[in-house]
Design brief:
The structure holds 2 protein chains of 2 kinds. Chain A is built from 10 helices and 12 strands. Chain A is an alpha/beta fold. The two termini of chain A are 35 Å apart. Chain B has one domain: ABC transporter involved in vitamin B12 uptake, BtuC (Orthogonal Bundle), CATH 1.10.3470. Chain B is globular and about 65 Å long. At the A-B interface, α2 and β6 of A face α8 and α9 of B. Chain A: This is ABC transporter ATP-binding protein.
């Protein structure tokens, strides 16, 4: 289990994440939502050790993430930031192989190759494994990065806005894959999402932030209602239920000045 | 590879004095002496400098995540030269070792400063970054010229400006062998450089010590650049175009591309050197001139055709 305890991060005078405490439940998809500048990405970066917190701590299995050795940590927690690695020419297979780096330091064993094959298979990339990343579409490229994380074989997979720049079809594909990772492989996925409806339809739990502070933390059905959403977004958002999915119709909502 | 071997043999038998392979059978002949004192060292120097500068460029491009950064476009070469000058000013009779140490320290420091600048600028355009590097290099260079002028050492400095294998004879180029372990190290750490080239976050995610790899890479670059500048002089463009050509057809997985980059670097430099020795035979054109002419043409082609790819 990952426990976030009183995390605070300041950039200059601005407090970006302010005393946030939350727990990430294993085998769930937890979405971080909130308006722009809420501190979602910063929080995710601190959980994954990309950023050091000013105060507070993150515990992985009761041990502070700062005390984990980096190669052992890399076998437990993986993170994908918004991807703009477009200037590196690697083939899909080479990229996915780097997922095995924490295990083999670049010299792939037969077992590593098996993991790579499986990850490619799982993400439906076997046919294009020898193509260069910069020749792929945005959706394919995002799938390649997720395949790398699957090859990394960590219990926790952290994703920072993986749907950025993806069209509807590819966004749905990616979210379905994440759902499968949790349901079939028992992974724990933490994801920063901009689109409230993807969060509503696909996640088990939601952590809502606003101006760096935690506003809501609970199961999805407790958060996706007009009252809670008004607190988070300063908008009156009606909820429509469709085939068991709660859809937030925010496009013509009344917005409050905050 | 094959091209490299053929060109090497051609290189051995081209020069002001005609040497035939049969002359070498006579161990005592003048031809054999010239062959051993001048031609063989020259070939070795070309191979080491060609491979070294290409690898240095490759590492810099990977670590800076910019296709157009190289020792020429990041101030490394200029810093190395400034180092030599400072060592000559500080110690009136600077020994070779002092020059080596100063030049290395400055090359390393100069490159680190460039990487710091790179960290701070927000607008990381593929063309904009090397432009900053070139400006930065020119600033270093003008400092060198200023102090060189004050200390009456301009003549000495210009000899490092010009890359040439003319003066390479046995006893004067052996420093270049220091580049060999540096290149080997680069190959051993190839995977780490590739991972670091994907960015700090990416590297950290995989449990790689990013800072360590970055510093190691810059050290390798400084070692290679220093040895080449001190023995051969400045060879522009080599570290820029060779890795880019290889990247175009092989990608950026350094474990795979390092051998090819080395080979192409050697072949390219051999061709340039042979051209330089043939066109005005029995005199020769310094290799940095031929490299600059051919190199800048290729560079322009890469710029126009490869803009999309470099981004």
């Amino acid at each position: 289990m990952i426990e976030i305890k009183g995390l605070t991060k300041r950039f200059g005078k601005k407090t970006v994440v302010d005393n946030v405490t939350a727990k990430i439940q294993p085998r769930t998809i937890t979405s971080f939502i909130g308006p722009n500048g809420a501190g979602k990405s910063t929080l995710l970066s601190m959980v994954s050790r990309l950023l050091d917190a000013d105060t507070g701590d993150v515990l992985l299995d009761q041990t502070s993430v700062k005390k984990w050795k980096s190669d052992r940590f890399a076998k437990r927690v993986s993170i994908l930031k918004q991807s703009n690695y477009l200037n590196v020419r690697l083939t899909v297979r080479e990229l996915v192989s780097f997922g095995r780096y924490p295990y083999s330091k670049g010299r792939l064993t037969d077992e590593d190759e098996k993991f790579v094959d499986q990850a490619l298979e799982y993400m439906n990339l076997t046919d294009i494994q020898d193509q260069f990343l910069d020749e792929l579409s945005g959706g394919q490229r995002q799938r390649a990065f997720i395949a790398m994380v699957i090859a990394q074989d960590t219990d926790y997979i952290l994703l920072d806005e993986p749907l950025n720049n993806l069209d509807m079809k590819h966004s749905v594909q990616i979210m379905k894959i994440l759902r499968k990772l949790v349901d079939e492989l028992g992974k724990t996925v933490v994801i920063v999402l901009h689109d409230i409806n993807f969060a509503s339809v696909y996640s088990d739990r939601i952590v809502a932030l606003k101006n760096g502070k935690l506003v809501k933390d609970g199961p999805t059905h407790e958060i996706i209602n007009s009252k809670a959403l008004r607190e988070i977004y300063d908008m009156d958002i009606p909820i429509h239920e469709q085939n068991g999915c709660r859809i937030c119709v925010y496009f013509n909502s009344h917005t409050h000045a905050n | 590879m094959l091209a490299g071997i053929v060109l090497s043999i051609i290189s051995l038998f081209i020069g002001a004095i005609d040497i035939k392979p049969t002359d070498l059978l006579d161990w005592e002949s003048d031809e054999t002496q010239i062959f051993l004192i001048s031609r063989v060292p020259r070939l070795m120097a070309i191979i080491l400098a060609g491979a070294g500068m290409s690898i240095a460029g490759l590492i810099m491009q990977s670590l800076s995540r910019n296709k157009f950064v190289s020792p020429t476009t990041a101030g490394t070469l200029d810093a190395a030269r400034l180092g030599i000058l400072i060592s000559m000013i500080c110690f009136t009779n600077a020994t070779f070792i002092q020059q080596v140490i100063f030049s290395f320290a400055f090359a390393l420091l100069g490159t680190i400063i460039f990487m710091q600048i790179l960290d701070r600028i927000k607008f990381k355009d593929a063309i904009f970054v090397p432009l900053i590097g070139i400006m930065y290099g020119n600033i270093l260079s003008s400092i060198t010229v200023f102090f060189g002028y004050e200390a009456d050492l301009l003549q000495n400095i210009s000899s490092w400006l010009m890359g040439s294998f003319t003066l390479v004879i046995a006893g004067r180029y052996e420093l270049l062998y220091v580049a060999v372990p540096a290149i080997l190290l680069a190959y051993l750490y190839a995977n780490k450089f590739t991972v670091a080239g994907m960015g700090e976050d990416f590297a950290k995610n995989l449990g790689l010590s990013y800072r360590f790899v970055l510093n190691l890479g810059l050290t390798i670059v400084a070692v290679i650049t220093t040895t080449v500048v001190l023995t051969v002089g400045v060879i522009p463009f080599l570290g820029l175009i060779v890795p880019n050509i290889v990247s175009l057809y092989m990608g950026d997985n350094l474990r795979k591309t390092i051998p090819h980059t080395m080979a192409l670097g050697v072949v390219f430099l051999l061709i340039c050197d042979i051209i330089g020795r043939v066109v005005v035979h029995p005199y020769e054109i310094p290799v940095n001139v031929t490299v600059a002419v051919i190199g800048s043409a290729i560079f322009l082609i890469l710029l126009f055709r490869g803009r999309a790819y470099a981004k």
